[in-house]
Structures are given as structure tokens and as C-alpha cells.
């Protein structure tokens, strides 16, 4: 315990020294505009007094440009995605056979805890913020986010948060948290390892970051829209970002409060979640009041991405645009009335259980509205099977499976049978990996020409899709079957499990592990494609790389991209500098 505290002191001291060194290097905190010729891109002068961006690492450490911050969010999220993916590959390798083979149960539990938190808080929320930061101002005709400096601060809270969450693995001699990502009490309140305290502090930082970002998005969409952008013609992605930000504003502060209470229980001796105090069930109520809206916080913007991309490659406008918007708002409202369906087996009042079951079933209706709208948009359309469209179609297919399996879990008698089995893991991952990650990949490929100026390798993009689609379904459909057979989740071994046929468990776990390795290969293809295309790819010839003008679907962000390309060409050919002289 003493050595762990010394390690934390040294780590925080080094962090303070680094922060102080960086502050001494920064002359001022002024806002930087995109480039010296930015006003010609937007058609109007910006409200900031600015000079051209500095070069090198200083640019990325001091930038408040929404596009740069979007790229920083995206790079951070993809690194976290890689870390979480490596963790789960190690876990799946351990589950290839029934006993303890490559790691101890305690290490497995640590990886299980960090994997869940990493994917939800360090990948899911930041990757959505990446798209939002880069494209929402472009889509609504704004110069930048409403609060550029707060936007930068919100991002720079994430790296120290990640280091704290992973601190149990990074600091020698310190044991990582083993609470699972839900941190249920009394286990999380009684575990002695300091790694759990670091994880709680890191989670708190990510929550503050998300809340600051949400306030910024709300203010930007309400106050920074171009005069031509009304609520009636606001794009669907911005609608989902606005709804998501509203959910964050109500959900994340509650999580922060619960985390502070848990930290006090662990270190000060309070009894918020002790048997003689509030009780262990209090944590579950507080956590899931945040936790289930968090699912929609993660899935609504990807739904917006899919609603935005599918029409572009179907050659027609989104069918039932208003109903998609209304269903988005309905999901936002209903998401706060379903949290206790995670707690049916805890013995809460049956009358409460029935009410939560009713709302949990009702929230499937707006999700179904979206699904039918996506299918109808594609119906009789001029479908082009580009990589973004393939990932969008894969999203719809996987989301249907994830949604239908969720309806079963929302039903009280079925939940009693399947609660805490691999069925829940399969359902949840069909939504997180099978839907959210697919929408993220669709967005990355669709907007790749904008933030790189180049085109990805199309053959590798399709290889990435098929490997990801096959790996996802092989991995998580096997988990659904394991759940039906009664295999409990969160077990490092299953040679002592008293339910179900062990041989069949082994075969299904092995098929899921093979699927995980296929997923890993697919993501390696993705990394190679993105990096090589960004560095050496073919430059796009014009501002319409997807031929959207042919179907009158050419949108604001590509018009901005075309103006930027024209501006770059003028500067390259020799344009007028600020003092009127010619420069090349």
C-alpha cells in the first residue's frame, strides 16, 4: 500500500512538472483560425483576431480550431480502441480452453474491467466527439464551436483520464481494478487496490470532459447556425448530436456524483453504499440512471451518421426525415425511464418492474421507426456499394439483431433466465461493436477525402468491411447461444461451471475467439489503409468525390471542402498576400 502511494505521488509530481513546462512554452492562448486565407473559405470574416497556425507539435498542443480538435479526438479514440481491442483478444485467448491457461483469474478480471471502461468512455464518447467537432460547425455554417478554448480543455482532460484508468497496468507493482466496468458495490467499495481509486478519478475526468463538450455542442447548434440553417432543415447528424448532448448534460453529472460518493466510501469511511447506509442497491440505481442513457448517448450520433450516409449512396433523400427527428427526440426522453430493467433480478418492487418493462418495450418503437426509414430509403434507390454504404448496411443488419435481443431482455420472465449470462454480452456487443463501430467506420470512410484531401484504397476498405462483418457475427452470435445454454459471464474459467455441456461451451468459446482474431485482422487492414492512404494516397480531383451533385445531395461540408481546394490552388499558383504583393 505504501509503495503504491509513493508511486502515485511520483506520477502526479511528474505530471505537474510536465504541465508547468508546457505552460512556460506557450506565449498566449489566442484562437487560431483554420489558415491565413480562412475568411475566403467561409465567405465572411471570422470574429477572432488571429495569425497563422504555428507549426509542429506546438500547433497540436495549443490549437483551438474545431477541425484540429476533431482530429485529436479521433486519434485518441482510435488509440483507445486499439488498447481495448488488445485487452479483449487476450481475454478471448484465455477462454479458448476451460481452465486457467495464459493468465490468472485476477489479471483476467482486471482486463475485463479496463476493456469495458476503455471502449465506452475512451473510445465511444471521444470518437463521436471527433465527428461532431470536425463536421457540426461545417454542416451548420459556423466559423467554429461556440467556446473554442473550452473545446480544447475538454479534449485535454482525456489523456490524463486515460492514464489514470490504465494506471494499474502502467505503474509497476500496482494492481489494477477488478470491479468490472459496472463497479457494483460492495465489491468496488471494499477492494483495497489503489488501481481502483485511479480508475474512479480517471472516469471522473472523462465525465467532466464529456459534459463540457455537451454544453459546447448545445450552445453551438443553438447560437452559431447560419441564417439559412433553420430547425426545419438542420441536418440529421446535428439533430442527433444535439439530443446526445442533452442526455450527457443530465446523465454524466449524476455519474460524477456517484463516483465521488464511492471514492469517499473507499477512502474516508462514509457509508453511502454500505449495508448500514444507503445500501448496495443505491449504487445500481445511480449507476444505471446514467448507464442506460449512456447506451443512447453512444448510439444516437451513429444513427445520425447512418441516416446521413445511406441517402447519399441510395440516390434519394432520407425517407420520413421528420419522423427520424421525432424518433430521435423520443429516444432521448424515454431513455431516462428504463434504467431499472438492469435490476429485475435484485428484488425491487414488482409493480416498478412492470412499469420499467413497459417503457423498455416502448423505446424499441422509435428505434424501429428509424430502421424502417433506412430500409425504405434504400428501397428502389440507386444503391452504390461503396465502403461507407457497406458499413451502413452492416449497421442496419447488426442493429436489428442487437435490438431484437434487447426486447427479450426487457421482458421480466426472460430476463430472469438470461440475466448475467453471455446472452447479455452478445446483445450489448451487437449494439456497441456491430452497430456503433460500423457507423464510425462508415463515417471515417465517407469523410476521408475531406480531412485528408485523399482517397482511401477501396479494395482494402471492402476487405475491412467483410472481415469485420464476419468476425462480429461469428464472435457475438456464439455468445448469444452460450447465454441460452446458461454460461455465466465474467468468468475467467468454466471448467467448474455446473450448468450446460462443457464441451459445447468450449466449442462456442473457440468459435468466438476465432471471430475475435478475424476482427483483429480486419482492424489491422483498416489501420494500414488509413495510414498509407493518408501519406501516399491519390489526391481527390475535386470537391465532389462521391458524385453527390448528380442526385442533388451535395451538402455543406463538401461545398466547404471544394472552396478550400480552390483556395489552396490559388495560393499554390501565386496569390495576393496581405500586403498586396504576389507570393507563390
Describe this structure in words.
This protein is mostly helical and 584 residues long. It contains 21 helices and four strands. A two-stranded antiparallel ribbon has the order 1-2. It has a two-stranded antiparallel ribbon with strand order 3-4. Strand 3 (575-576) and strand 4 (582-583) form a beta hairpin. Helix 4 (66-94) runs parallel beside helix 6 (148-156), helix 6 runs antiparallel to helix 10 and helix 12 packs parallel to helix 15. Residues 26-51 and 576-584 have low confidence and may be disordered.
Q: What about the largest sheet?
A: 2 strands, antiparallel
Proportion in helices: 55-70%
Order of helices and strands: HHHHHHHHHHHHHHHHHHEHHEHEE
How many H/I helical runs?
21
Cα-based radius of gyration, to the nearest Å: 24 Å
Can you give the mean pLDDT?
A: 88
The dominant shape is globular
How is the quaternary structure best described?
Answer: single chain
What characteristics describe this protein?
Cyt_c_oxase-like_su1_sf; transmembrane helix; two-stranded antiparallel ribbon; 4 strands; mainly alpha; 584 residues; transmembrane; two-stranded antiparallel sheet; 69% helix
Short account of what is shown:
This protein has 21 helices and 4 strands.
Topology, element by element:
Elements lengths: L1 H24 L12 H5 L13 H7 L3 H29 L10 H36 L7 H9 L1 H8 L1 H4 L16 H4 L3 H30 L12 H32 L12 H33 L8 H14 L15 H13 L1 H15 L8 H23 L2 H7 L3 H31 L1 E2 L2 H28 L16 H35 L1 E2 L16 H18 L1 E2 L5 E2 L1
Antiparallel strand pairs: 1-2, 3-4
Helix pairs in contact: 4-5, 4-6, 4-20, 5-10, 5-12, 5-18, 6-10, 7-10, 10-11, 11-12, 11-13, 12-13, 12-15, 12-18, 13-15, 15-16, 16-18, 16-19, 18-19, 19-20
